[in-house]
């Protein structure tokens, strides 16, 4: 079946509420991971205009150099960087917290490695590893399952129809599913601010798997397609200064099955020390998950000719890169991160 026809067929079935995952996407089995985590995993749609796709973790390391808080190359850093030695950077710059994986290229030239890999018609983004599936045992047969998505570049969008804002190297986004005795109860979608959390039962489904719409450029995750105003977190007024845009198969959105580009892990903080283990002992490297630094450039100063401050310095054209999975509150108590904002558990599907 031709790709275009397949997408149209997929869109018509999804709109009709027909189960698709069992026929379109494989359901893998992974040693050490409960099967229900895989059965209820997200099915993603990237925007049809997306230019910066899921990115290979090792390729990102190959194209960056560790720098400190003063934009200086870190002497003595492991070279070449790999997924098995990235944690060694925690020996530098305040325990790794002020280490920046800085692009070797001028990012204004849009080097090819920033663009990642577009998914094929079967929802697989080439043979890259761009996802960490992390299972956290909460006790009493309850678990949280995190699906951490990596992109080498975040395009922040346009403010006031005139200025680019919020671009940065490296981008970690995520969904989290909270299971109670093997049953999915809530799903959290990472976005600007505190994200959004919905009861699993109200979400759009592809078979048993919920649908996750990924915003063009910013890669924020949403439960519905369309326009999303995030000027005021938790309040979508439809139109605003800061907008995200998502779409699905009817609009040409690109199907992505993150399970096909993933490593699988377990996480525990029971001893007070965050610990990652491969779901199958020795199969997946864990050292990179311990890295405490930033997965991109430090925010360029105002003096840098590439930089442009916006709205009186409230934001800038280029901002700093993010921390990795270890800094995403994997042992959280609530469905949402604990950042002082209320965790609203929505039981009605809405933008």
From TrEMBL:
Superkingdom as given in the UniProt entry: Eukaryota
Alphabetical UniProt keywords: Signal
KW GTP-binding (keyword) present: no
Signal sequence, renumbered to the chain: 1-23
PANTHER family on file: PTHR48220, VACUOLAR PROTEIN SORTING-ASSOCIATED PROTEIN 62-RELATED
Protein known as: Vacuolar protein sorting-associated protein 62
Organism: Phyllosticta citribraziliensis
């Amino acid at each position: 079946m031709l790709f275009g026809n397949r997408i149209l067929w997929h869109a018509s079935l999804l709109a009709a509420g027909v189960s698709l995952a069992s026929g379109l996407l494989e359901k893998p089995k992974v040693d050490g991971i409960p099967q229900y985590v895989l059965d209820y995993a997200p099915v993603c749609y990237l925007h049809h205009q997306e230019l910066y796709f899921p990115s290979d973790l090792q390729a990102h390391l190959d194209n960056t150099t560790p720098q400190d808080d003063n934009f200086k190359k870190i002497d003595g850093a492991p070279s070449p960087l790999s997924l098995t030695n990235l944690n060694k950077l925690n020996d530098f710059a305040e325990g790794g917290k002020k280490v920046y994986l800085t692009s070797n290229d001028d990012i204004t030239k849009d080097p090819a490695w920033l663009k990642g890999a577009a998914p094929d018609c079967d929802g697989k983004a080439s043979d890259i590893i761009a996802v960490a599936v992390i299972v956290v045992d909460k006790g009493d047969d309850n678990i949280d399952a995190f699906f951490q998505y990596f992109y080498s570049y975040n395009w922040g969008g346009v403010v006031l129809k005139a200025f680019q804002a919020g671009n940065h190297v490296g981008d970690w986004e995520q969904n989290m599913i909270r299971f109670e005795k093997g049953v999915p109860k809530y799903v959290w979608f990472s976005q600007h601010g505190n994200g959004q959390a919905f009861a699993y039962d109200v979400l759009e489904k592809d078979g048993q798997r919920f649908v996750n719409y990924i915003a063009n450029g910013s890669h924020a995750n949403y439960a519905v397609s369309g326009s999303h105003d995030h000027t005021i977190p938790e309040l979508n007024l439809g139109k605003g200064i800061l907008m995200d845009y998502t779409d699905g198969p009817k609009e040409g959105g690109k199907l992505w099955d993150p399970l096909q580009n993933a490593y699988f892990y377990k996480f525990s903080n029971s001893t007070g020390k965050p610990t990652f283990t491969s779901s199958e002992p020795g199969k997946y490297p864990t050292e990179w998950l311990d890295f405490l630094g930033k997965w991109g450039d430090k925010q360029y100063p105002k003096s840098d000719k590439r930089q442009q401050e916006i709205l009186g310095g409230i934001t800038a054209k280029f901002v700093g890169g993010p921390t990795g999975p270890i800094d995403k509150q994997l042992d959280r108590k609530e469905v949402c991160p604990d950042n002082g904002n209320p965790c609203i558990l929505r039981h009605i599907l809405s933008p």
